């Protein structure tokens, strides 16, 4: 075991990026304009006819109202708007160029068909909402939200999956209390998106068990390494591996012990500056080498006000339009906040501004220990 010393931050390697936002066509509620457009069109046709000194040949616009209603309304509202379109078309006061029976039957048929389509769409939307709710519950069970505090450590995590519409991907984090102290993990499994969820669930399950019965972070790393090795043993040509950083806080939160498996250690925020701790990464998890080559453990003494910031390669390897890596260590002091959750959100906002096309899983874990006073 050795003490850590701060050194200038290293830059990451190349990576892919994506901004995960759910729009109208991905399941979000219809926008306001889509809801009001049919009514606005109907009112516009009526108003134009009433104020025009001569009849206008714009009755064809009424035929567009029921299909537009299908986009944002249910069958009842679609039927109401369709009926109003037929009424406006036939009421003499609007002088819609005396439509013939063919025009009227066409609008009636379009309205009836629109009601049917709206009914089918509403049923499918309800089914998709149910399926999405079930999927969200399942994904939250794999990676539940972090509590605001675990013992003397305040914590906050931020996760943005690379695959649109998912809450879990190839990155993971967790903070747990156990008989040997407060332990935290943040890692990245091979691949991303839904294909990596099974590996994430397996690793988090192994971590939560190891927190309870493994005496030190090296043993926790060995447990995770063995879990991945076992999972990939039955699959020919499987190359299942993961990188991770493990942290163990003492009971008084005055010392943290760090093990890095295949990735760099956390950034230490202290006195308005950000330092990358000198943690030498050992081999990634899943290669079966943790017991042969024990990981190097680094011990860091903490002060009041210190915060540890961990970020995945989706943050450190993001690039701007000119191909320059996101300078996390340089920007982090200017984004600092007493609230760990607010700090993570500020970094995410700044990252998206710097690199709008973020395509990799983005994960951040902020740990703010409050050392207890003592000798």
UniProtKB/TrEMBL annotation:
One of its GO terms (molecular function) is phosphatase activity. Residues 153-369 form the PPM-type phosphatase domain. Residues 1-22 are annotated as: Disordered. Gene3D superfamilies: PPM-type phosphatase domain (3.60.40.10). SUPFAM superfamilies: PP2C-like. It holds the Pfam family SpoIIE. InterPro entries: Bact_Sigma-Reg, PPM-type-like_dom_sf, PPM-type_phosphatase-like_dom. Keywords: Hydrolase, Membrane, Transmembrane, Transmembrane helix. The chain crosses the membrane at residues 58-91, 103-120. Residues 11-22 have a biased composition (Basic and acidic residues). The keyword Nucleus does not apply. This is PPM-type phosphatase domain-containing protein. It comes from Streptomyces caelestis.
């Amino acid at each position: 075991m050795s003490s850590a010393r701060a050194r200038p931050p290293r830059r990451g390697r190349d990576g892919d990026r994506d901004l995960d936002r759910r729009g109208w066509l991905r399941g979000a509620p219809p926008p306001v304009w889509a809801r009001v457009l049919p009514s606005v069109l109907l009112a516009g046709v009526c108003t134009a006819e009433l104020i025009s000194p001569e009849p206008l040949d714009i009755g064809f616009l009424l035929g567009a109202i029921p299909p537009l209603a299908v986009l944002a309304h249910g069958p009842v509202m679609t039927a109401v708007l369709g009926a109003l379109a037929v009424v406006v078309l036939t009421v003499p006061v609007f002088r819609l160029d005396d439509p013939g029976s063919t025009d009227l039957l066409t609008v009636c048929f379009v309205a009836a068909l629109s009601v049917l389509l709206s009914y089918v769409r509403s049923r499918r939307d309800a089914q998709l909402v149910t399926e999405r709710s079930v999927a969200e519950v399942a994904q939250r069970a794999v990676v539940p939200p972090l509590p605001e505090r675990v013992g003397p450590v305040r914590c906050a995590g931020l996760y943005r999956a690379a695959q649109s519409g998912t809450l879990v991907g190839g990155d993971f984090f967790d903070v747990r209390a156990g008989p040997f102290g407060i332990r935290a993990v943040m890692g990245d499994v091979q691949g991303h998106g839904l294909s990596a969820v099974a590996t994430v669930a397996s690793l988090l399950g192994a971590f939560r068990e190891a927190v309870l019965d493994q005496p030190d972070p090296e043993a926790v790393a060995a447990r995770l390494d063995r879990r991945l090795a076992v999972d990939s043993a039955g699959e020919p040509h499987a190359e299942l591996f993961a990188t991770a950083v493990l942290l163990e806080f003492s009971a008084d939160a005055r010392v943290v012990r760090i093990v890095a498996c295949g990735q760099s250690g956390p950034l230490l925020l202290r006195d308005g500056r950000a330092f990358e701790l000198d943690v030498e990464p050992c081999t990634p998890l899943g290669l079966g080498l943790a017991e042969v080559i024990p990981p190097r453990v680094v011990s860091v003494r903490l002060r009041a006000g210190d915060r540890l910031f961990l970020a995945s390669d989706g943050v450190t390897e993001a690039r701007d339009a000119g191909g320059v890596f996101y300078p996390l260590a340089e920007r982090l002091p200017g984004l600092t906040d007493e609230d760990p959750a607010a700090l993570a959100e500020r970094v995410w906002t700044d990252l998206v501004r710097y690199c709008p096309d973020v395509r990799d899983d983005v994960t951040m874990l902020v740990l703010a220990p409050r050392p207890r006073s003592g000798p």
